[in-house]
Amino acid sequence: MDIWFLVSNTIVLACIYGTLAIGISITWSSLGLLNLSYGFIFAFAGYGAWLFAQHVSPFGPAVLVAGILSGALGGVIICALGFIPIHDKPNFTIRGLIATLAINLIGTQFLLWWFGPRSKSLPEIFGDWSVSLSGAVFSADKVGNVVTSILMLTVVLRWMQSSRRGLEIRAMMMNPHAASIVGIGVRRTSFYVMGITGGLAGLAAVLLSQTYYISPFGGLMPMIKGVSIALCGGLGSVRGAVIAAVLLGLNEALTGVSIGGRYVLITQFTVIIAILLVRPRGIAGLLDRAREA
Amino acid sequence: MSRDSDIKWRNPLFVWGGKSDVEELPTIPFRSHQEVWERTRQSRAKLNPVGRLRYYHKWAGHGGRMWNRLRYWPTRRRVLRLRGEYNPKTLRAEKTIVDKRPIWWVLGLLALAIGPLFTPGDLQNTLLTAGATFGIYSAISLCWMLIMGTAGIFSLASYAVVGTAAFATALLAVKFALPWWLLPPIGALVGLVFGGIIALPATRLDGFYYALLTLGLNELCRVYFVTSKEFGAANGGLYGATTYVPEDWSQLGQLLLAYYACFGLMLLALLLYRFVNGRRLGRILRMAPEKREAFAEATGVNFRQARVWVFVISSIGLGFIGGFYTANFGGVAFSIFNFDTVLLGLAMLVIGGIGRAEGAVVGTLIVVFFDQVMNTWGPARFMIIGLIMLLVVLYLRNGLFGIKAQFRAWRDKKKSERRSTRAEKGGEMLPEEATETDDKSIIYQRRYDKMTRDHLKTLVTAEIIEEHRQTLNGQHSEALERLLVYFRTRPQEEKYAIMAVERFAGYRIVALSGHRGVAPRVVEDKIYSTPDDACHGVFMRRIQDLLES
Questions:
Q1: Is residue B145 part of a domain?
Q2: Is B366 part of any domain?
Q3: Rg (alpha carbons) of chain B, rounded to whole number
Q4: In terms of residue numbers, what domain contains B83?
Q5: What is the pLDDT of residues B271-306, one digit of tens each?
Q6: Which of A109, A265, A266 comes nearest B386 by C-beta?
């Protein structure tokens, strides 16, 4: 029973953090931008969903969609402020990283100033039923979280596989210079990418707010988990991110059972450092073909 | 081509009664070639009265002492970089200060040293506290700058090292009642251990992978210390360590002591920065900048080892600062591990410019001013700091202290743009081409040719063409004669000629190849019926070529 609870919890968290990690991975590999303002996008999307639930309707799926849309809006804002002005300037990678950190600082402080430090809670999105399966009880939000995040990821990945825009994004991932030569606009594509990854972060925000609450700085921990998973799986690789999410989720569950929940982060970073010492570019990352420029 | 037909050219050979001679033909007024010459000679560059040259004040020379320079122990460095020279016009000995930064440093540090004497009474408390904070944070920034600028490791775990050292020393001080002067050395030891551990992945990972990892490490430290019982999870921090500030002093005395102690810490950090960055390790790492590591390695520079050394030395420094932090405030709060603290620290480095000591100090001054002095503004002050950071990153290449170099680069770019719009390219050599050619006389030959063509272009009018059509042979007006002489003196290559397709009936224009044995090239399909028509056709083609050149 206890183990089942932990395992289900881990699967849920792995799904949500994996969503964020894939967003970070896609942004890095297609734009060359290490977006560290996910904490802000996360909180922004949460507050967007909260405002929607307060003023328009508390109907679950509508709140979810509102969260995704406001996350996409946050991503587009970051793109317009932090990517478009400097993407062709010298030293872009470091400057882009610092710019997103600065936007994160401004944005979270703005949310703190506007909404106050008290955390907000969203209505129950998936209702309050539960499924009992051979002694394990799966509550509605857990099932809903897993199903929604997997569904959303599948839709996004299918869209990237099969549509024209997805083709553009994949071309940018392979070789941004050649992509711009054959007429794929870097700026336009960057708006798509940031919109989609922002939407993924918004989804994660709404799903996580079922367990935690919405606060201005609440996005930090999910961002760090997402970044660690993306790092461990290899930046730019969706497959690696999935493997890393499962691996780190397993580690979290095992640590929680054997030593105690306090040491989760310590074992997690030990595992990440060990993996990175063996494979410096993550599980599925290739050493030589790092993205340049 | 204007038709001012009141000017006539009289054919002097007309009286001899040639068959096709015409007595008078309309022509153009005389145009001097001097005009073109003068137009070419005059400069069209817009000259501004100042701002072209770098201005250096010339100090009077000191005769025999001109070559004697003050050097300071223990190095053989000069206090100021001076250049002694003789004025080429007056032959007077004079001195130029090439690098004025030491002067600015001394003035700035003097201002900080005597600053407390001039603080207004009602703000004294705030300003002295902010000054002490500035001293500690600028020391942290300087050590971090060694990691980010000199070693080129994008680490975000500096505040984690400081915080860990501070918490460890605070715990030891509370448990074993250690005296305050033991705390910084113990902190340095903690920094050595922590720095050694996190330097391990730095040897393998590069750039952003390491940044992300250290971001996570910082969060790991925060969670660990916040949740652990022995570090005072209940009251927001660990306090109760002994401080160097005596209890029985007046409040002003305590504040002043803390201010000067922190100022001294900053001076120590500056010394460390100078000894690491300005000496062997810094030299080695300047040899191996980003993307040129392979070259440095090939020349036998072990830059990896140097990086780890710098990292470990700065971590020891950060640990020392952590111990001092505890000894200064009597403890430490969890807020040192906050993500916002890391962001503010990064803002300090970024605003000043990465890779310079003055950048770290001035950036810290700006951030601490907004953070501590403007603390009635609430979250708005962080938004202002973030905004400054964002603007600096978006518009400046290397922070506030990079403005000078960036402005100069921009001005030079604009200058060369304007120079290239001024340059005329009608056959003349471009500056790049001119420096490449071995035979410099070609440059002047081309320039003369261009002036000739410029003058001849002014002579081409409808009257002249009409004159050539009517009087193909014999004497011509002055303008037509000049044109014809120019055309005749062209080289053989691509020169037009007339080929008889059918004798007395069909002629066509060809262009000579200029090489023996290579047949001329057919220029146009048109067949002329007489040699005179063909000859005029050649003239028209040449005029065409002249006008197009």
A1: yes
A2: no
A3: 40
A4: 58-99
A5: 999 889 888 888 888 888 877 888 888 888 888 888
A6: A109
DSSP B143-203: HHHIIIIIS------HHHHHHHHHHHHHHHHHHH---GGGHHHHHHHHHHHHHHHHHHHHT
B44, part of any domain: no
Distances (CA, A) of B42 to A191, B35, B39, B46: 53, 11, 6, 12
Residues of B in Cβ contact (< 8 Å) with A265: 216, 219-220, 223-224
- Domain ends where: B70, B99, B128? B99
Q: Given this model, what pLDDT does residue B423 score?
A: 65
Q: Report yes or no: A217 at the B interface, CB cutoff 8 Å.
A: yes
CB < 8 Å from B in window 81-100 of A? 81-82, 85-86, 89-91, 93-95, 97-99
pLDDT band at A293 (very low <50, low <70, confident <90, very high): very low
Can you tell me the mean pLDDT for B454-474?
90
Cα separation, A210 vs A187, whole angstroms: 35
Q: Please answer yes or no on whether A273 and B213 come within 8 Å at the CB atom.
A: yes
Contact A182, A53 (CB under 8 A): no
Chain A residues inside the 8 Å CB shell of B385: 105
Cα(B348)–Cα(A191) distance, integer angstroms: 30
Q: Is B291 left (phi over 0), alpha (psi -120 to 50) or beta?
A: left
Based on the structure, what is the number of domains in chain B?
3
Task: Say which of B205, B215, B350 has its CB closest to residue A227.
Answer: B215
What DSSP element (H or E) covers B366? helix B357-368
B312 and B451 fall within a common domain: no
The answer to whether residue B386 is domain-embedded is: no
